[in-house]
Design a protein that fits this description.
This protein is of the alpha/beta class. It has one domain: Metal-dependent hydrolases (TIM Barrel). It has ten helices and ten strands.
């Protein structure tokens, strides 16, 4: 069984059609992905992300009956942080997926600290998107800004924090060693990416399967599991068991 912690119901360029979502379901079945943690780019880039989450994610994800964990987005710069989180919680969302550069704040912002505290109190899994596109493939004037990874060293955590699309080589050592910081596999590249990630983290217990579908092919993430030389127990943990500890069934 595989749990994909980095799945999306749309793309940075626009929403998916019903045919696209049906193809997503087919891909998940093909690569034995039994559960997806799904967020929305539309919500990340909207001034009222909570409304988009409630209106868009839940409706689009009906194509995955019983296989979806909903991850919403809030904008702490709008105020009413607790109200935004409570609305998502009532709608069945089990986590929060944030891309701070989209809403004009950073991790040192007191509003982010309040958001983090409320999310931890409500036992919502917090995910941070580190990058949207590979900077090597973008035209300089139109680059997506990246999350300031150095600022992660100043965050105090009471519950796990999941970093999506995180380039491990740029992650500060104190953050990499933090037992509450988890990273997904979507942005691992080169030969033996899972083996090298486990070596960098010092454990396989904080590595999560993530595909970044539909931006990246789901097959890319699935083949990393097949090609690794990690022990079978480690592969099972990366594929699903580590994620299951964060969001129980």
């Amino acid at each position: 069984m595989v749990i994909d912690v980095n799945c999306w119901c749309d793309t940075p360029q626009g929403g998916q059609s019903l045919a696209d979502l049906e193809r997503t379901a087919e891909e998940c079945a093909r690569w034995r992905v039994r559960e997806c943690w799904v967020g929305s780019f539309d919500a990340l880039f909207d001034l009222d992300p909570v409304a988009v989450c409630v209106r868009t994610i839940a409706r689009r994800c009906n194509v995955f009956p019983g296989r979806i964990r909903l991850f919403g987005t809030v904008n702490p710069t709008l105020g009413g942080i607790r109200d935004q989180l409570e609305e998502l919680h009532r709608a069945g969302f089990q986590g929060i997926r944030l891309y701070p550069p989209a809403h004009g704040y950073d991790l040192a912002d007191p509003r982010f600290r309040r958001l983090q505290a409320f999310a931890e109190k409500m036992e919502l899994v917090l995910q941070l998107v580190c990058r949207i596109e590979d900077p090597r493939t973008q035209h300089p004037p139109g680059k997506w800004p990246e999350l300031d990874l150095a600022s992660l060293a100043n965050i105090r955590l009471a519950r796990p924090l999941v970093l999506l699309n995180c380039p491990l080589t740029r992650l500060p050592d104190p953050v990499r060693a933090n037992r509450l910081v988890f990273v997904d596999t979507a942005w691992l590249e080169g030969l033996g990416p899972l083996d090298r990630a486990v070596e960098a983290l010092g454990t396989y217990e904080r590595l999560l399967f993530g595909s970044y579908w539909p931006v990246f092919p789901l097959a890319s993430a699935a083949l990393k599991l097949r090609e690794t030389t990690l022990a079978p127990e480690a592969v099972r943990c990366v594929a699903a068991e580590n994620a299951r500890r964060l969001v129980p069934p």
